[in-house]
Amino acid sequence: MTTHEQTGAGPATAPVLRSGEVVLRPLAEHDIPALVEQERDPQTQRWTPSEPLFGPEQAQARVRAAREQWAARSATTPRRWAIGLGEGEPGHAPYAGTVEYVPDGHGGAEVGFVVHPARRGRGLAVLGLGLALRHAHTTDRVEVAHWRSEVGNWASRRVAWRLGFRVEGTVRGIAPHPDGPREGWWGTRLAADPQSPAHAWWETPRLESDAVLLRPWEDRDAGRVPGATSLVSAGEQDVRQPAEGPAFTSWLDACRAGAASASRVTWCVARADDGPPQGALHLRVSSGARRGSGELGWWMTGDPRTHAAPLLLGGLVAVAGQVLGQGAALPRTGLAVPRLHRLGATIGVDDADSARALEGSGFHRVGVEHATWTGRSHGVPEDTARYELLALP
């Protein structure tokens, strides 16, 4: 990275920062048409508190404000750049988006970024924000950078993850929106942290055989789960079928957040022809001393003997083959998924259908725990059976 402070007559402006073909430069009047396109883009308006009637006048005000804020250079004024592309004259590098941070005057700063719709999918937000963070830590002595986004903005969360931000939690009403504050994620990154992911981000690989398909849950699955839940593993936190509307969206975001935090993978279980969902299969991995050991949970719909149990059996075989590295003819996707040495599962002690599926997929019963589950009995404790499957040596 090279840094060039602009000098000469007139007020100070944003320093020019460059890394390869990506350059951070001052916002300029010739960026106004692209700014208008960016702010009118449906995705921009969905995830940022932009004005619905954003036009040239608002874009001009934004350019002017950025220039005035750099000229003031107070301890708390925003530092905002245009993201440009190209290795020529920095001031005219084609506009690709904006990036900024806002210091709080006490060693912290909040970051923000938007990429023009025509430039998305090229990693420009990661490169641009990375340059801005280096400037924040070295020039403004920012000790901790903060990132926040509305829950569901996975593109923003992946940018933050790529740069080493850790999501500290989900906070009610922290994400501004024209329709009112919304639930959002909050993340932090210290100056000493590397600009690389602090943990894995698991993908949900598509696994299939002649009888069953395991795939990621998708937006199209809302309201498509048929019948009533028939097989439920002990310890399953939410055995209700995903509903339509906001309830399903929240459930789907929770599934995706588990993968993004490398703590859980959730598959949709369907027939091999990719019909409607027939259930869900979860893989949870602990992050402490038992790292390398995973716990399976599920809920299935349909008749246990003729429908749900055979699909569960196929799903268990597929997952075991993927994460334990055993099993013939199972696909290797090349995606980031956990590699484990042990799988565990817990079922109701009288759940013969789940027991047959587990034993048919290679699991061994290792014991019974008494009065450990109230999931099916309206508060009356039930006994559970523990199963495990170890990776082949």
Describe the structure concisely for a colleague.
By secondary structure, the protein is of the alpha+beta class.
What report would you give on this structure?
It is a single chain. By secondary structure, the chain is an alpha+beta fold. The protein folds into two domains: 2-190, Aminopeptidase (3-Layer(aba) Sandwich), CATH 3.40.630; 207-390, Gcn5-related N-acetyltransferase (GNAT) (Aminopeptidase). The protein has eight helices and 18 strands. The protein has helices spanning 32-40, 42-47, 56-72, 124-138, 154-162, 246-260, 304-324, 352-360; strands at 2-4, 16-19, 22-25, 79-85, 95-103, 108-115, 144-150, 166-175, 182-190, 207-208, 212-216, 229-232, 264-271, 279-285, 293-301, 342-348, 364-373, 382-390. The strands form two sheets. A nine-stranded mixed sheet has the order 1-2-3-4-5-6-7-9-8, sandwiched between helices. Strand 15, helix 7 (304-324) and strand 16 (342-348) form a beta-alpha-beta unit. The longest helix is centred in the C-terminal third of the chain and has 21 residues, at 304-324. The two termini are 47 Å apart. The model is unreliable at 1-11 and 327-335 (pLDDT under 50).
List keywords for this structure.
alpha+beta, Aminopeptidase, 2 domains, nine-stranded mixed sheet, disordered N terminus
